[in-house]
């Protein structure tokens, strides 16, 4: 059995301001730094300690992943293929600004984000392909691993693991969610099943 925890990183100033981060380089703000400690404590309760911590190249993910890796005496494995989706010309804009400038596109984006690619942005299908490449070897090599990814990449990682269509609606919510750790376990046939969705407040709920 393989255990995978998909972790959303701590917040940046853009999260506080409801701005799209995409592939931008932004450090964790004080609130984001404080959010990492509860995540580490949640990961300590996994049924098997992590053997590897993976992330992309941007600061929100790398800062969170480095802290997690240090807590388990590991070295972060960083890969461009796990970098967040590039949101093109929308990066840095607030959700409110996008809705005001392009109301029709915005409404479709809120209802079915997978049908919209921001100008000069990356199609989500391309991101799915690189996530599959990035996870192929680690899933074979390790029995327990942590993947730190910002939204919407985190939702695509979950989709690749379970084989289910990606649910990107929460990834583009006007209200950013607190960092969470979703825990998946491989079944006998090799597919992954979500078993826990741990909240940053230390609680968790077993998946339906």
Verbal overview:
The structure is a single chain. The protein is of the alpha/beta class and 208 residues long. It has one domain: 3-Layer(aba) Sandwich (Rossmann fold). The protein has helices spanning 13-16, 30-43, 59-71, 95-101, 103-111, 124-141, 153-162, and strands spanning 3-7, 52-55, 77-78, 144-148, 180-186, 192-199, 204-206. A seven-stranded mixed sheet has the order 3-2-4-1-5-6-7, sandwiched between helices. A hairpin with a 4-residue loop joins strand 6 and strand 7. The protein is globular, with a radius of gyration of 16 Å. The two termini are 20 Å apart. Residues 201-208 have low confidence and may be disordered.
Topology:
Layout: E1 3-7, H1 13-16, H2 30-43, E2 52-55, H3 59-71, E3 77-78, H4 95-101, H5 103-111, H6 124-141, E4 144-148, H7 153-162, E5 180-186, E6 192-199, E7 204-206
Parallel strand pairs: 1-4, 2-3, 2-4
Antiparallel strand pairs: 1-5, 5-6, 6-7
Helix pairs in contact: 2-3, 4-5, 6-7
Content of β-strand: 15-25%
Q: Structural class given helices, strands, pairing?
A: alpha/beta
Alpha carbon gyration radius: 16 Å
The helix/strand order is EHHEHEHHHEHEEE
Strand order of the largest sheet: 3-2-4-1-5-6-7
So, CATH architecture?
A: 3-Layer(aba) Sandwich
Percent helix range:
25-40%
Going by CATH, the homologous superfamily would be Phosphoglycerate mutase-like
Multimerization state: single chain
Distance between the termini: 20 Å
The count of domains is 1
**What shape does the CA trace take?**
globular
CATH topology: Rossmann fold
CATH class: Alpha Beta
**Biggest sheet record:** 7 strands, mixed
Task: Compute the average pLDDT.
Answer: 87
């Amino acid at each position: 059995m393989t255990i995978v925890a998909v972790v959303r990183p701590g917040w940046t100033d853009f999260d506080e301001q409801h701005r799209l981060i995409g592939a931008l380089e932004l450090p964790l703000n004080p609130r984001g730094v404080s959010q990492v400690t509860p995540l580490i404590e949640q990961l300590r309760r996994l049924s098997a300690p992590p053997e590897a911590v993976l992330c992309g190249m941007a600061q929100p993910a790398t800062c969170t992943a480095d802290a997690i890796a240090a807590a388990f005496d590991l070295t972060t494995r960083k890969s461009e293929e796990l970098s967040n989706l590039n949101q093109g010309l929308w990066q840095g804009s607030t959700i409110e600004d996008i809705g005001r400038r392009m109301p029709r596109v915005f409404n479709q984006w809120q209802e079915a984000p997978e049908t919209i690619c921001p100008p000069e942005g990356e199609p989500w299908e391309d991101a799915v392909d690189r996530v599959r490449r990035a996870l192929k070897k680690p899933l074979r090599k390790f029995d327990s691993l942590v993947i730190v990814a910002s939204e919407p990449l985190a939702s695509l990682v979950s989709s690749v693991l379970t084989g289910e269509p990606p649910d990107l609606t929460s990834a583009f919510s006007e209200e950013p969610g607190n960092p969470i750790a979703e825990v998946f376990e491989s079944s006998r046939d090799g597919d992954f099943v979500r078993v826990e969705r741990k909240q940053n407040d230390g609680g968790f709920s077993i998946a339906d």
